[in-house]
Design goal:
This protein is mainly alpha-helical. The chain has ten helices and two strands; from the N terminus they run ββαααααααααα.
Length: about 190
């Protein structure tokens, strides 16, 4: 039997049992939205965005998609914690930070220089799309603006660290995605 001890924490069974719970673990606990979004739904959309970014950049997508699908996997255990609360936990040196990495360590997720920031960019873009569609409140707009600033910083870092990338094309794709109406292509033919 495989040892499932990770940094002092023991994973008692296959993580897929816990990961299945992401379908009923909901995001946006502190932002009023008109639609619930599960962590699984969010991760699926992040993976689709990452796939598109990989196509534009000419990258093999497997490591990126895997990381995208599992980037919030610890939320199966702890739920979705708002970013400001996560920052406070980090500053207070609570052992939660150790626990948050258990899934990532156990699943051997790739954390290369490009994988994590590209997934974080897609994570932010997906959050912005969801908020612009389902959180039409002043608070929703404030959260959107904070995420947008973070995404811009991530994009700057990607451009600086990987200057040969087709970042202008990625930026165009992001803008198209964020500005696209919610109707589908098929709506034009119905």
């Amino acid at each position: 039997m495989e040892d499932r001890s990770t940094d002092g924490y023991h994973v008692p069974r296959s993580p897929i049992v816990d990961l299945y719970r992401l379908g009923s673990t909901y995001r946006w606990q502190v932002v009023h939205t008109s639609k619930e979004q599960s962590v699984a739904e969010h991760s699926h959309m992040v993976a689709l965005l990452v796939l598109r970014f990989c196509q534009i950049l000419g990258l093999p997508p497997l490591a990126y998609i895997t990381y995208a699908l599992l980037h919030d996997s610890e939320e199966a255990w702890i739920g979705d914690i708002a970013t400001p609360a996560k920052r406070m936990m980090d500053q207070s040196h609570l052992p939660i930070k150790k626990m948050l990495g258990v899934f990532h360590t156990y699943l051997h997720l790739d954390d290369q220089r490009l994988v994590k920031p590209l997934v974080k960019l897609a994570d932010d873009v997906e959050a912005m799309k969801f908020l612009s569609t389902y959180a039409p409140t002043k608070h929703g707009a404030q959260v959107y603006d904070r995420i947008n600033k973070h995404a811009a910083g991530t994009m700057r870092g990607l451009k600086e660290n990987h200057p040969d990338g087709k970042w202008d094309l990625v930026q165009d794709e992001i803008e198209d995605f964020l500005n696209a109406p919610n109707e589908t292509f098929a709506d034009d033919y119905i």
